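input
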Amino acid sequence: MTPVLDVHGLAYAYPDGHQALFGVDLHVHRGERVALLGPNGAGKTTLVLHLNGILTAGAGSVAVSGLAVEKANLTEIRRRVGVVFQDPDDQLFMGTVRADVAFGPANLGITGAELDHRVLRALEQVGMEEYVDRPPHHLSFGQRRRVAVATVLAMEPEVLVLDEPSSNLDPASRRELADILRSLDVTVLMVTHDLPYALELCPRSVVLSGGTVVADGTTYDVLTDEALMKAHRLELPFGFDPRTAMPRP
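output
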């Protein structure tokens, strides 16, 4: 089976000469929920920006469901891979929730009843349909994050990439977002420092450190490997023990 995300030998150096990635291999199959873990400066953001063509490979290759991430394919790649940024205000810039969620599909040429259907379905998926005509800046931070997810879902992506989805959320909003992410029929790659959230939501974790993949296994095995965790500056919250935490399926 062709992986929905297929990264081979990806290397990338920024124009200032800083080498951020050194031959990364990553393969994610349809329906998986995978956490991308690692210390600051590991190359996680650089890797994510290659998945929908914001950056293009210096060496190696990236493909989404067999389609190469290259200039000629960028419109389709960006439909297939939706990125939800850490700050929802980076994605919400229109006057109403409806207009924000409609923006992406409308740019694909979708209009009329089909556009309305896309908007309402995406908002229903994140429990925000009753806010469709509200200005985004009147919403709470957690509500804005859910609308940001809806702006991506309206594109009907194959892969949902989330950058620190639990950051700055209160406990109730954190739980609500977890319930939403579990309910979605979409492949998820979640970049996070929130290791309990990774354990709760992602059966598999990939650890990136120093621009290379240093571990790829079950989230439980990664989080209970004390030598691995210490070597790559991954720390569990005080009092949290993966051995006694029981993530929901």
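quick obs: The radius of gyration is 18 Å.
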